C-alpha cells in the first residue's frame, strides 16, 4: 500500500505579524488535527525547500520576481495582495510552490498527493492579488510540461473565487485546460476567461452544486483526456463562509472531494491537491472541512 504524501512546512503558518495571523492559522491546525486523530503520521509529511528561481521564471516575469525578492513592491501592490511584504512571506511562497511541484512525483506513484497550502490562483505573471504572490498551480503546470511529465493538464478550480490569474496565464495554452466553478457575485469582480467558467448564483445549495459538478467534470475529463490534474479544493463554498455566499454543507463539500477523486482515479489521472480558501468565522469549521479532503483522498486511493 502506497503512502499519502503531504507537503507541509512550519513557514506555512508563521510568516506574518500577529495582527495578520488568522488567515494562516489553519495551516498549522490541519496537520495537527490529522496527526492527533491518527489519519496520518509524521511519515506522511515532507517539508519542501524553496523553489528554484529558474522554474519560477517559466511562469512569472523577472521584474515581478525581483520585486518580491528585494522587497520593492509598492504600497498599492501590497494592498492588492492583502499582506504587507516581508522576506518570510516571499520565502513562504517559494516553499509552497516547490511543495506543489514535489507532490507531482508522489502523485504519479500513488495517484494523489497533497499540499497543506497552495492554490494561489489569483497571482498573475507580473502581479499578485487576493493573498496570492506566486501562482503555484501555474508554475507546477509549466514544470510538468517543460519536464515532459505531462502532455495535457486539467486545472480543476473549485474554490468559490474564480481562478483569474490561472485563467489569464493559460488563456493561449492548449496544453492546459482551466475549469473554474465559482460564485458569480464574488471576488474577483473582474473575471478573466477560463476554458470553462461556471458561475454559481448566491445561495447555491449542495444538491445544485453537485448536479453541476456531476455534469461538468466528466465532460471535461472525457473530452480533454488529460494525463494530469491539479485540484484546488477551497472550502469557501461552505454555507458558514464569511465571503462565499453559497449554501453548501460540510458533508456536501466532502461529497464534492469524493466525486473529484473518484472521477480521476477511475481514469488513472494523477492528482495534486492544494487547499485554497476558507473563511468561516470558526476556524474549527475550516479545519474540519479541509481535513475531510485529506481523509477522503486517503480512503478513495487506499493509501496509508
From TrEMBL:
<dbReference type="InterPro" id="IPR000286">
    <property type="entry name" value="HDACs"/>
</dbReference>
<dbReference type="InterPro" id="IPR023801">
    <property type="entry name" value="His_deacetylse_dom"/>
</dbReference>
<dbReference type="InterPro" id="IPR037138">
    <property type="entry name" value="His_deacetylse_dom_sf"/>
</dbReference>
<dbReference type="InterPro" id="IPR044150">
    <property type="entry name" value="HDAC_classIV"/>
</dbReference>
<dbReference type="GO" id="GO:0040029">
    <property type="term" value="P:epigenetic regulation of gene expression"/>
</dbReference>
<comment type="similarity">
    <text>Belongs to the histone deacetylase family.</text>
</comment>
<protein>
    <submittedName>
        <fullName>Deacetylase</fullName>
    </submittedName>
</protein>
<dbReference type="GO" id="GO:0004407">
    <property type="term" value="F:histone deacetylase activity"/>
</dbReference>
<feature type="domain" description="Histone deacetylase">
    <location>
        <begin position="27"/>
        <end position="290"/>
    </location>
</feature>
<dbReference type="InterPro" id="IPR023696">
    <property type="entry name" value="Ureohydrolase_dom_sf"/>
</dbReference>
<dbReference type="GO" id="GO:0016787">
    <property type="term" value="F:hydrolase activity"/>
</dbReference>
<keyword id="KW-0378">Hydrolase</keyword>
<dbReference type="Pfam" id="PF00850">
    <property type="entry name" value="Hist_deacetyl"/>
</dbReference>
